[in-house]
Amino acid sequence: MNYQDLGNIKLLDMKPVISNMKADIIAGLSKKNKQLSPKYFYDKKGSELFDEICTLDEYYPTRTETSLLNQHIHEIINLMGDRPVFVEFGSGASEKIKIILSHVSENTHYAAIDISKKFLIESTQQLAKEFPYIDIMAICADFTKEITLPEIEDYQTSVAFFPGSTIGNFERNEALSFMQNVRKSLRKSDGFLIGIDLHKDKKILEPAYDDSRGITAQFNLNILNRINNELNANFNPDAFKHLSFYNERMYRIEMHLESLVDQSVRIENHRFDFAKGERIHTESSNKYTIDQMKILFNNSGFELVEQWIDKDSLFSVNYLQAT
Ligand code: AVI
Question: Measuring from atom 12 of ligand 1, which residue has the nearest CA?
Answer without folding.
Answer: 209
